[in-house]
Amino acid sequence: MTSAIQSPLQKHLENEVQTALPVDTSGPYTVTDISLAEAGEARVSWARSRMPALAALRAAAESEKPLTGQRVAGCLHVTKETAVLIETLRAAGAEVSWSGCNPLSTQDDVAAWLAREGYDIHAWYGQSTEEFYRCIDRTLELRPTLTLDDGADLIYRVHSDFPQLADGILGGTEETTTGVIRLRAMAEAGELLYPVIAVNDAATKWDFDNVHGTGQSTLDGIIRATSVLLAGKDFVVAGYGHCGRGLAARARGMGANVIVTEVDPLPALRAVMDGFRVMRMDEAATLGDIFCTATGMKDVIVGRHFDSMKDGAIVCNTGHYDCEISIPDLEKRSTDCRTIRENNEAFRMEDGRTIHLLARGRLVNLAAAEGHPSEVMDMSFANQFLALCRLASEGGGYDNRVYDISPEQDTELAALKLKTAGISIDELTPEQISYLSDFRAGT
User: Region 270-295: what's the mean pLDDT?
Assistant: First the structure.
């Protein structure tokens, strides 16, 4: 593909130093090993069978082709569920190019399957920060008309390095809380160059994906990395938003004594009313056996907290970026670091204590496990698909700001999810509907 964009990774490969990269570049893709495709196919087949809402949308899109002529650049965790979304976009008529949104979340066998199936995929597990952004740049060679993001790194890359592309982009979508916060700040500053739909803020996303998906998959990652018994442990959850709430509930369900830390009075009060102990991190640091950040904010756990943690404390993150835990502070205080098991590093402190860091502070549910279950990603990715279709048909008339998913889409998607699960609900009668607007009705 010819392009006016000079991709740093393309330049890197042309300079014949690709052998330094642990990836397969034998085709128009950048993955670890194309021979992993067969294992990836089995994973994707499993996910596909458990994403009925997206399957129903795909069936309709295959004939209607609502994305014909669109070029979608995506930057989102390369998992088996994401592969089902990618193939749905192609079925709807779009040309697709993809990179991972986290250096430690790509499922290499899934990336290999996408490459074998002819998708423009640039992602592998264990990327450096430089490689991460090079892969994003590769996707931008497509000269996208639509973007799909998780964390806003792709969108920000367009704005900071390739602003000439913005005029050709109808709009974008954003999957996660961290990215939405970032994009709203850009819009508020008048620096957002094209409209973005906040898929994350849909009720059918954050009340299910964030609560149920994050809650379950985070514990999955912690257990895979440690095999630790949760029952009886003091489990500290930093942040009581949707993700933190789901995690706290499931940790309690496994028998842990949950402590919540917060900076916002409202979620802190919710945590109290939900029966959790709430305190400052300075106090919780002396009590916790397991710590998990879920805030989207940097420096939630810093040096002074490491100084007061118990011997053997486990620290991890399920927020978007690794900056929630100050790893430099931990490294400064340690005399030795060794890998105990995959995604579990033991840092020996100067006083002899050991602190365990999981997945290098990256998303523990994706780096150490497989991310959210397919059933819950079904709704999130159905929202992504519908939002991109909306932008394809209407985006040219939007202002450069962040838009919400419509209540109608939320309701219709919830109804579709129930239908595909074989669940029926009641309907209001005409008399009940009339009652809702009859202000004269009383006792």
Answer: 98
Q: 201 and 235 in contact (C-beta within 8 Å)?
A: no
Residue 335 has pLDDT above 70, yes or no: yes
Tokens of 88: 């749905």
354-358, strands of its sheet edge to edge: 277-278, 257-261, 234-238, 290-293, 313-317, 354-358, 344-349, 334-341
Structure tokens given for 59: 């069936």
Residue 24 pLDDT: 77
Whether 312 and 193 have beta carbons less than 8 Å apart is answered as no
- Residue 64 pLDDT exceeds 90: yes
pTM of the predicted structure, to 2 decimals: 0.89
Q: Is the per-residue pLDDT at 6 higher than 70?
A: no
Instruction: Give residue 22's pLDDT.
Output: 57
* DSSP secondary structure string for all residues of 29-67: SBBS-GGGHHHHHHHHHHHHHT-HHHHHHHHHHHHH-TT
Dist CA 113 CA 123 (whole Å): 12
Q: Which residue has the tokens 């042309």?
A: 14
- DSSP letter for 277, please: E
- Evaluate if residue 358 carries a pLDDT over 80: yes
Phi, psi (rounded to 5 degrees) for 292: -140, 120
Q: Strand locations in 80-204, DSSP E? A: 95-99, 120-122, 146-149, 171-174, 196-198
The residues, any chain, with a CB within 8 Å of residue 389's CB and separated by 6 or more, are 61, 66, 67, 92
Q: CA 262 to CA 139: how far, in whole Å?
A: 38
Residue 221 has pLDDT above 70, yes or no: yes
Question: How many Cβ atoms from other residues are within 10 Å of residue 69's Cβ?
Answer: 10
Is the CB of residue 65 less than 8 Å from the CB of residue 93? yes
